Amino acid sequence: MSTFGTLFRVTTYGESHCASVGAIIDGCPPGLPLEAKDVQTQLSRRRPGQSNLTTPRDEKDLVQLQSGIEHGITLGTPIGLLVKNEDQRPRDYSETDLYPRPSHADWTYLEKYGVKASSGGGRSSARETIGRVAAGAIAEKYLKAAYGIDIVAFVSSVGKVKLPSVVSPPSQVGSEDDDVVEDALAPEFVELLKTVSREQVDAHPTRCPHPETAERMTKRIIRAKEAQDSIGGTVTCVIRGVPAGLGEPVFDKLEAKLAHAMLSIPATKGFEVGSGFRGTEVPGSKHNDPFFVKEDGSMGTRTNWSGGIQGGISNGEDIYFRIGFKSPATISQAQETAQYDGTPGTLAARGRHDPCVVPRAVPIVEAMASLVIMDQLLIQNARKTALSLLPAITTLPPTMVKPTASS
Ligand SMILES: Cc1cc2nc3c(=O)[nH]c(=O)nc-3n(C[C@H](O)[C@H](O)[C@H](O)COP(=O)(O)O)c2cc1C
């Protein structure tokens, strides 16, 4: 379906080659100062044609706010957002009238709907994500203003070129003995999660905030492009300042909502939160995050292998996760494949395509993270308000309340 969220509800519309793409956002709180430029900043980070590492399709992606805002203030009514598709070239897709692109969505969309959009994969085009990015920018503005929440995503790998995130003692390399497994989040990576800013991320066209690694990533993307090929990568996202208590176990655990949101982005192939798959190799004695009281008196954890979520509920630590994006399917290199009617043949796709999607995926990941956190905050606030309206229960047994220092 094209709607995401429960209380902060976003419906996106549009395909690659229709008149416009956009979104309707229902449930945005009234009274939020909002201007087109708040949304435009993120749309411009997503737009094609930003550098030689992205598709040359020339779209300005200028947003038009249609409703739900007056005098720069949200009204609490549905917000309509629209971006025109201006640089369509459906003729680029003439081969794909005959051939479904291998590993794209052309064949499955036609099987499902029985009719085909001129661009082939219809709604699977990354143009659809404009509506998400615009809606996410609005959610993000509220999260920042009301809670000081900060969301930053960055490119953490391209092909095999990786931002170093884990240190493993040399003794461990190749060892199968659990007791010597002591890998840990590299201090550099932990620091990066705490401090990384969008300015640092945008300082390099790859959107990797580690200049040396960014240069190596550039070379990898250019190599793919020159070979008329493509390459995948990962995006890591950190959400700072989320209060404890968000997430709706059991089916709507916070990590499940984030995974749902992230895996709905085109070209995603994997999601891991906190220690992720790496955590399976670290014994519990090393992997547990011990509690301690922070300087401000609040409870915190010394390490954060959990990625800020325990039992499907935020624990107040930074939430961080990683998403894997495949190598884009559309490549100009000739591929032996079959036409829609089964006739074998060779497809060398024309058109303008991203050799690697991760630099442009960064604001999309931030947007989806904003939508999840916004929705979960509104849900938790509704629960808290409902509780606060009840007369206080004074007779709870001690096992039902938080012990105090004196008890
Ligand atoms: C920012 C972004 C840009 C993309 N650009 C392209 C592209 O130029 N060519 C392409 O084949 N796929 C591109 N994709 C991926 C397709 O939208 C997607 O892979 C395809 O529809 C198949 O869907 P699936 O990979 O989710 O199964 C892009 C994805 C994103 C997130």
From TrEMBL:
Keywords: Amino-acid biosynthesis, Aromatic amino acid biosynthesis, Lyase
Alphabetical list of HAMAP family matching this protein: Chorismate_synth (MF_00300)
One Pfam family in the UniProt entry: Chorismate_synt
InterPro entries found in the cross-reference section: Chorismate_synth, Chorismate_synth_AroC_sf, Chorismate_synthase_CS
Homology family: Belongs to the chorismate synthase family.
Cofactor comment text: Reduced FMN (FMNH(2)).
Originating species: Phanerochaete sordida
GO MF, any single term: FMN binding
Family annotation (Gene3D superfamilies): Chorismate synthase AroC
Known pathway: Metabolic intermediate biosynthesis; chorismate biosynthesis; chorismate from D-erythrose 4-phosphate and phosphoenolpyruvate: step 7/7
One GO term of the biological process aspect: aromatic amino acid family biosynthetic process
NCBIfam families documented for this protein: aroC, PRK05382.1
Protein name from the UniProt record: Chorismate synthase
